[in-house]
Amino acid sequence: MSLEAWENTFRMNGRPAFVATSEAVRSMRGHGGSVVIVSSVLATSPAPSHFSTHAYAAAKGALNSLTISIAAYYARDGIRVNAIAPGLVDTPMAARAASDPEIVDYARRKQPLAAGLIQPDDVAGTAVFLLSDESAMLTGQVIAVDGGWSVTEA
């Protein structure tokens, strides 16, 4: 991997979350609120046999640390910051993986609760929960919505 590719991956995955979170926190100071950052299960549970994602995993790991750090700092302001770490989700970004029979079979074994790729609504439901008052006592958490990826051998 070139340094340029490394930097581009961090720019595409780290910078938007940092900018959006900074703006959200700025607008929430004084009255509280909730921020959800999107990480990835690959930050903590890599799949080297199918995905060469060093920079992506490192960038998403940085988002996990950012989540915890911001949550710790702004909890006293009533601002909650949590992250979702999805597994392999059926989105346009995963189209290449979804079209590869070997990866689809791997996902079936690695994400047994989803029996393959996770549906976007399953991730969205967790985001809605984290943004709602139902999760008022959660902050600084990285929640894996991974269909079992992080606890399953393939």
Mean pLDDT: 95
| Contiguous uncertain segments of 5+ residues | none
Main sheet properties: 3 strands, parallel
Estimate the helix proportion, in percent.
40-55%
User: What's the architecture in CATH terms?
Assistant: 3-Layer(aba) Sandwich
What share of residues are in beta strands? 5-15%
Give the CATH topology: Rossmann fold
DSSP, total strands: 3
Mind telling me the CATH superfamily name? NAD(P)-binding Rossmann-like Domain
How far the N terminus sits from the C terminus, by CA atoms, comes to 26 Å
Work out the count of structural domains: 1
The gist of it:
The protein is α/β, with parallel strands linked by helices. It has helices spanning 3-13, 15-28, 54-74, 95-98, 101-110, 120-131, and strands at 33-38, 79-86, 142-145.
Description of the molecule:
This protein has 154 residues and is α/β, with parallel strands linked by helices. It has one domain (3-151): NAD(P)-binding Rossmann-like Domain (Rossmann fold, 3-Layer(aba) Sandwich), CATH 3.40.50.720. The protein is built from six helices and three strands. The chain has helices at residues 3-13, 15-28, 54-74, 95-98, 101-110, 120-131; strands at residues 33-38, 79-86, 142-145. The chain has a three-stranded parallel β-sheet with strand order 1-2-3, sandwiched between helices. α1 runs parallel beside α3 (54-74). The longest helix is centred in the middle third of the chain and has 21 residues, at 54-74. The protein starts with a helix and ends in a 9-residue tail after the last strand. The mean pLDDT is 95.
